[in-house]
Amino acid sequence: MAEKIQSSLLSEEGFESLRTLVPGDTVDLQIAMPAAPKRVRTDYIGMLIDECLLFHIPTSAKWITVRDALTVGNDVVVRSVLEGDTGQVIAFKVKVLKLLSKPSGLLVTSFPKRIESIGLRSVKRAQLGVSVTLDADVYPSDENVSGIIIDLSLKGCKVALQAKPNWPVMLDEAEVTLNYSLDGKEVALSAKVKNHKLESNMVYYGLAFTCDEKLIKTLLSRHTLLS
Fold first, then answer.
1. Which is nearest to 122 in space by CA: 201, 197, 205?
2. How far is CA 121 from its chain centroid?
3. Tens-digit pLDDT profile for residues 94-122
4. Which residues does 31 contact at the CB level (< 8 Å), separation at least 6?
5. Which residues of the chain, if any, have pLDDT below 70?
């Protein structure tokens, strides 16, 4: 019987999620920079278990700014949608170990120590999500109503929630507050429901923001599943 492959750094569940990534999969890299994080999409190449991960970083001129930011020790948040029966977004933080230009443009990072994930169910083909909790008059005060922002702009967003009997559907023009954590602090975004749609076991809300635009810009710049 073949010996089961395991990681000494990750939980069994986390390691299985990471192993779902296959060479050639597209991932989202968020690179720490002084002014604001830089986000790019590129290809995952592979891993050496408990040692390192590899990503493709082209050497072409338009990638110069990205390559300059990938200094040894800098933080990178990696996000990816795993395709499966339910769909899942995974996110993890690693550090830059080395950036190669020959024989090809390769980024070598540390191996993650923790994997965060959010099930997307039927949202698996949507944009990567930000987890939030929702406060509205229709929800019981003792309920922790959670959802995922699956589309986001300065003017509004689209939020997906599971359809639950004790989570009544919000009607159009209803006021709602989205809460998320930023650097350990709770941030509240006020909005109004512009449209809603029931699909399978999910409810999708189109929301228009009614809060300060600066709060939205912060969310856009720090768009990640990891706090």
1. 201
2. 15
3. 999 999 998 889 999 999 999 887 654 43
4. 37, 38, 39, 40, 66, 69, 70, 74, 75, 76
5. 1-3, 81-88, 118-129, 183-184, 221-227
Q: How far, in Å, CA of 203 to CA of 206, rounded?
A: 10
The structure tokens 């994930």 sit at 117
Before 103, cis peptide (omega within 30)? yes
CA distance 161 to 170: 11
pLDDT of 192: 97
In one letter, which amino acid is 100?
Answer: L
Do β-strands 146-152 and 156-162 pair in parallel, antiparallel, or remain unpaired? antiparallel
pTM recorded for the entire structure = 0.57
Distances (CA, A) of 42 to 105, 132, 133, 135, 153: 11, 26, 30, 36, 22
Output the pLDDT for position 93. Answer: 92
Report the residue count for the chain. 227
Amino acid present at 202 = M
The pLDDT of residue 69: 92
Tokens 């509004």 identify what position? 156
Q: Are strands 88-100 and 38-48 parallel, antiparallel or unpaired?
A: unpaired
